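Narrative of activities, Objective 1.

The group set out to show that a structural description can be obtained from nothing but a protein's sequence at a throughput compatible with the screening campaign. Below is one input-output pair from the validation batch, recorded exactly as produced.
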Amino acid sequence: MPDLVDTFGGGVDFFAQQAGEAHADDVTLGFLGYVDHLGVEGDHVGFLAGTGVIHPVHLDLGEHLGRGVFADILEIASVVGRLEADEVDLGVAHEGFGVEVGGNVTYRCSASRSRHGCSTSPVGRGGGGRRLIVAFLVGGVLHATSAGASTGQGRLVGRGALAQEEADYGDHGKGDQGHHHHGGEFFTEAEVGRQGGQTDTRGQTGQQLQVAASQALLRQVQAGSVRLHTRSEMLDVIVADGRAVGVVTRDLVTGEVGATTGHAVVLATGGYGNVFFRSTLARNSNASATWRAHLRGALFASPAFIQFHPTALPVNSEWQSKTILMSESLRNDGRIWVPIRPGDDRNPNDIPESERDYYLERMYPAFGNLSPRDVSSRAARAQIESGHGVGPLKNSVYLDFRDALARLGRAVIKERYGNLFEMYTDATGEDPYRVPMRIAPGAHFSMGGLWSDFDQMTSIPGLFVAGEAGWGYHGANRLGANSLLSACVDGWFTLPLSVPNYLAGLLGTQPPGPDDPSVTATLGDVRARVDKLLSIGGTQGPDRFHRRLGDILYRGCGVSRSAQGLTAAIAEIDSLTDDFWSDLRVAGTGSQFNQELEKAGRVADFLGLARLMCVDALDRDESCGAHFRVEHQTADGEALRDDEHWCFVSAWEHGTDGTPIRHEEPLAFTAVPLATRDYR
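Output recorded for this entry:
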C-alpha cells in the first residue's frame, strides 16, 4: 500500500517483498495542528486538526469538487458505494480548490464507531480564519492547489476520468490533453476494463493498477513521506499488550533480521494461491505475512475458498514451475471444446465439427463459453479426467478462434486480443491464429484470508489487512470483473478512514523501543526459526517439498473435493511436514543472499496453511461457490448448498496446542434473499 504517511512526524516503513506487490491505491494520513496551510496528501481524504481535536473530512467526489462540501468519515457506511454522512460546511470554496476554513465543524460519531470519543470544535480558526490548501490524488498523481490558483476552475469528474484529470492538473501530463492514456503513464478506469476499447491495456488491468500504485509510492518516497525497504521480507508480527506494534523482517541481501515498530501495521501482501506450487501468481508471492499473523492470534477466514481460473495455460512439462493466466476476455470470441472421442490426438484443425464437443455451450446454453469461472473450471476438469483432455500431457481443453477469425477477420481479432495472442505464442511456441489455444483450470485467487471487521482490522487490534490478503469481499466465489475490487476499495476508501480512526486513540503514545520484551522475544523466535531451517541438513531442497505439496492439494483440495480425498490429503500433509523438518536441505548460510532459505521459510508456512485449507474444506459439509464437495451436488451435477446449516463464515483460530478452532460469523441477507443461480 503506497503512501501511508506517518502521522507522528516520521515516515512510513513500507516493506516491498520480493514477492509481490500490493495491489492497492493510495492511503494517506495527514494530521496537522496549528498551521496555516494543510497539504492533504491523499486522493480524496483530508484531516483537519484544531485545538487538539482531529477532524477527518471526506471530499465529495462529485462533478464539481470545488463546492467545498465534505462528509464526516465516521458516518461512511461499510457498504461500498453508499455514503451515509452529514455534510460538513467548511466555508466558501474559492477559485480552484482553495477553501477558506472558518466556523465550527460538527464532528459526530456513529454508535458503532464511538470508542475513540467525539467532540465539536472550531477548526483552523484563528485571527479571522486560515486558508486551507487542498492537495489531492488523481489516478495516483499528487496535486496541490492553493486558493486563487488556476486549476481548470475546480473541475474534477470522479474516478472514471483519471487520465484526463492527470493531463489537466498534473505535472506529468506531457502528452496531448485528453489523450494521455494512449501510451502515457496512467489509464482510465473505464478503458482498462473494456476489452476492445481504444487503449493499449486490453487484458492488463492488474498490470496497470500495479504501475499506478508503484508510481504513486515512489513519488512519496522521493518526497520523504515513506521509507521504502526493498529486498526485505516480513517474517513475523510483533504483538504487545494485545496490539500489533511492528514487524520483523529479514534483509534478503545481507540476511540481517531486524524489527520495525509502529502504532499500526497494514498487511497488503496478496493471496496464497502459490500454496499449490503451480499457480498463476508470481513465483515469489507467498503467504508468510498472513500466516505468521494467524499464528500470532489473527483469525483466518474461509481458507478453503480458492478460485481456479479456467483460462490458465496448462502445464506442458512435469518440471514446469507455474502456469500463466490468459485474460478471461478471450472467452468473448473463443469457443471451448474437446474431441468427442477420448484420447483423440489428431491435429485439432483436422478434427471435423461433428467430432467436437463444445461442452459449455451444450451444458450451459444460456451462458455458454462465458459461464462463471467455477462452473467452467469444474466442467473442464471433468472433461480432462474422463479422458478427453488434449495436449502433450492430456491436461487441457481447446479455446478456438477459428469461427471468430472467419466471421470478423484477422485484423479485428488482432486489435482485440493481439497482445494476448503474442503472450500465448511466447509461452507455448504455438500460433493461436492458426491452431486453437490450450487452456486448463489453474489455482488463481484466494477468497479466504485474514478475518477482518468492516474497518479492515483483524482480530488483533492495530493489525489491518488489505486486498487479497483479507477475506471480506467475494464470499465463496469471486466473479469476473471483481478482480480489482478489494485493491481499489481498501486502498481508496476504507483504510484512509479506518486507520486514522484507530490511530486517533493513540495520540501522544510511542511504539515499543528496540529493547521492549515484545520486540526482543519476536526477534528471538524468528532467528531461532531461521537457524532451525539451516541446521536440518537433509537431502531435499525446499522446491521438492513444495512440488509434492502442490500435487497433494490439486488432487485432494482442488477444483472438486470429497471427504475421502480431504482426509487423505491431511494425512499426506502431516507426513510431508514430518519429512520437511527432518530431510530439508538448505545450502548456504543465513548471513547472505540465500534464495533457498527464503523458499524454505515460505514452504514451511505453506505446509501449515495447506493443512488448514483441507481442514476447512472437510469441515464445510456442503458445496458452495468454488468449494465443490462431490457428495453435495444436484442430479445435474451442480453445487448443492446447505444454507440451513452452513450460512456462516468460518473464522479459524490457531489453538494453543496447534489445533484449529472454528468461530462462526452468521451471514444475514436482508435486502436480497439467498438464491441459487441456474446458468443453464
